[in-house]
Write a structure and sequence with these properties.
By secondary structure, this protein is α/β, with parallel strands linked by helices. It contains twelve helices and seven strands. The strands form two sheets. A four-stranded parallel β-sheet has the order 4-5-6-7. A three-stranded mixed β-sheet has the order 1-2-3. Helix 7 (216-235) links the parallel strand 5 and strand 6. Helix 1 (2-25) packs across helix 3 (73-83), helix 5 packs parallel to helix 6 and helix 6 packs parallel to helix 7 (216-235).
Length: 320
């Protein structure tokens, strides 16, 4: 299985390079304009399909450029078949990679919030918690400014659905790095500056209540986040610092755009989808009540009880 995962990773990278070369040096479609970068490729395990994510700099018309790429997919696929040695050359599905725009949008939201917070100095510190240098930067800023932290929210994370053996090694390791390691390191770095009476919100998930097939790594990372939070809460109780593990079910956010790229979301998750504002309001109320875990909604509360009663292997079988 590990060999298969590594192979898919290599195929993805080889396709990314070749498709990029073909688009930039061989493609003659006049509708395709601007500087195009292939940011990543994700091939299905059976090699039948490959999602090709692109960014486009200074296009005359972005919509027409994307349509042009889709129209040219047969030509690009034919050229790939001649340059990449695969048993099956996958059908290419082009998608616009809006991650850069999302980052800019988040930065814009933070700057608007900064304007609304009157009487308090606000420092926006953009960090990529998948990169080692971000932690060093955070460490230096904290040491220099020595802030008094009243609220810490660890909300970074991502999940990828699908069976473990068909995930890329990069995605599997990335979930652990961001959902577990980054959460732990940020908490560790900020903790010396957390004052009495403060709150630490750790974004876990109802996925951490029990083993979950087809969300194997993600569920395991959220079980870690929940366990870590509850134990840390006890350690800090003498300092009057309240730590709470926020464990919602599915929430209407962009999380699911990435989580379910490869398969359809299961019906019961769509049924239990919650409003993010209500989840946050519930978490704040529960933290003030000094609860160890915040669970929003009747469905997820019932799920938590069931997961406490039934053995994990039974839950895994039911959800599988």
């Amino acid at each position: 299985m590990a060999k298969n995962t590594n192979r898919l990773g290599r195929v993805n990278e080889e396709l990314r390079k070749e498709i990029s070369n073909i688009i930039n040096y061989e493609l003659k479609n006049p509708e395709v304009t601007g500087m195009i970068s292939v940011t990543k490729v994700k091939v299905t395990p059976d090699l039948k399909y490959a999602k090709v994510y692109v960014t486009v700099l200074n296009p005359k018309n972005l919509e027409k450029t994307m349509e042009g790429l889709k129209e040219s997919s047969r030509f690009i696929r034919t050229r790939v078949a001649h340059t990449v040695n695969l048993r099956i050359t996958p059908e290419l599905v082009f998608e616009y990679d809006d991650s850069i725009e999302n980052g800019e949008r988040i930065d814009s939201i933070l700057r608007e919030l900064k304007k609304e917070i009157i009487g308090t100095r606000v420092r926006i510190l953009p960090l990529d918690l998948m990169k080692e240098e971000s932690f060093e930067r955070l460490r230096k800023v904290l040491a220099k400014e020595r802030p008094t932290v009243r609220i810490l929210v660890n909300a970074s994370g991502f999940g990828i659905s699908g069976s473990f053996e068909h995930q890329t090694e990069e995605d599997a390791a990335g979930m652990i790095r961001l959902n577990c390691e980054a959460l732990t390191r940020v908490t560790y770095l900020v903790l010396p500056y957390v004052s009495r009476g403060s709150f630490i919100y750790q974004m876990a998930s109802s996925a951490g209540f029990a083993p979950q097939p087809d969300f194997t790594v993600y569920a395991a990372t959220k079980a870690y986040a929940k366990s870590f939070s509850i134990a840390l809460r006890q350690e800090l109780s003498g300092h009057e610092v309240k730590v709470i593990a926020v464990c919602p079910g599915p929430v209407k956010t962009e999380f699911f755009d990435r989580a379910y790229e490869q398969e359809e979301m299961k019906f019961y998750k769509k049924f239990a989808m919650a409003d993010p504002k209500r989840v946050v309001s519930k978490a704040i109320r529960d933290a003030r009540k000094n609860k160890a875990v915040s669970v929003y909604g009747f469905t997820m509360k019932t799920t938590r009880i069931i997961c406490k009663i039934l053995p994990g292997k039974w839950i895994a079988k039911i959800m599988g």
